[in-house]
Amino acid sequence: MVDPSRGVLFPSRLTAFHRYAPPPVAADLVQWFWIPEWDLEPGVVSRQTVLSYPALNLVVEPHGVSLVGATTRMSERVLRGSGWAVGALLRPAALGTLTSDASSLVDVEQPFSAPTLHARVVAAMAGEALVGEPGAGPEAGVPVAGQVAGQEAVDHEADAPADRHDHAVDIVAQWLSDRAGEIPSVARHANMMPEVLIGEGGANTPAEAAVRLAVSLRTLQRMTHRYIGLPPAAIIRRRRLQEAAQLVREHPDVSLATIAADLGYADHAHLTSDFRTVLGFTPSGYRTESS
C-alpha cells in the first residue's frame, strides 16, 4: 500500500483517520479503504485539505452514497459536529460496474443509488448486529464476517473501533465483488496502471509507463481516459506533486532546489509553478504553514 501520509497536506489537522488494505474478495477492485470519524465540540471547525489520488472513490456517509471522481486540484472539506465516511479508492477494474464514463466524473461528486449498501454500512458503523438477507447480490444483504484473513490495517490508533470498521469494509467489499462479477482480462490489465503511474518508483513519463505496461502510448492514453478520466501525464504530475509536498513538509532541512532535482523537476521554478497552479501556494509558504 502507498504511504498513508501521501496526499494529506496537513496531517496534524486530521481527525481520526484510518486506511485498510482490501479483503481478498475485493483485491482486484479496491486499492484501499479509508475511514475518517469525527466528533467536534460545538463551534469547532476542522478543515481537511487533500491532494487526492487520481482515481474514482465510492463513498458511503450517513446521508447517502456517492461517486467521487478524480480531481485536478486540491480539495478541502470543512467538518463540523460529528460524522464518518467509509470510502473505497477504486482500482480500474471496478469502474465498469459503477459508471460508463470516468471522464464525466472528473472534479465531480455524484449521488449513487445503493440503498441496501447504505443501510448496512450505517448499521455497521453504529455497531448494530447485521444479518444477511435472503438472496445474494449487489443490492441484497451480504453475510458479515469478522476481519478477513490477510486484511492489513494501516494508520490505526490504539483505540480505533476496529470491529465496526472491519464490518463496514467487509460489507462494501462483498457488495463490490457481487456487483462486478467476473473481471474481464482487459480490466485486469488496466489494474496495472496505478502501480506504474502513481506507485512507489512509478514511471517518470507517459512513454516510460507505456513501455512498462507493454502498450502503445496511444493505448495508454485511451486506458487512462476510460478508467481514470485524466491523461497519463496529469496522473504522473499528481504523484510527483504529492511526493514533493510530503518531502517539503517532512524534511524542513532539505532545500527546495534539492527536492525539485530529486523528483525530476527542471528546476526550483517548475516546482513552485506546480505548487501555485494546483495548491494555490508556494513550496516555501506550504513549508511554513505545515510546520
**Could you give the count of β-strands?**
10
Structural class call reads: alpha+beta
Give the mean pLDDT: 86
From the alpha-carbon coordinates, what is the Rg to the nearest angstrom?
Answer: 19 Å
Strand content: 15-25%
- Domain count, please report it: 2
Series of secondary-structure elements, N-terminal to C-terminal: EEEEEEEEEHEHHHHHHHHH
Task: Note the gap between the termini.
Answer: 26 Å
| Biggest beta sheet attributes | 8 strands, antiparallel
Helix content: 25-40%
Shape: globular
Helical segment count:
10
Low-pLDDT runs of 5+ residues are 133-138, 140-160
Pfam families: DUF6597, HTH_18
Keywords: DNA-binding, Transcription, Transcription regulation
Protein name: HTH araC/xylS-type domain-containing protein
GO molecular function: DNA-binding transcription factor activity; sequence-specific DNA binding
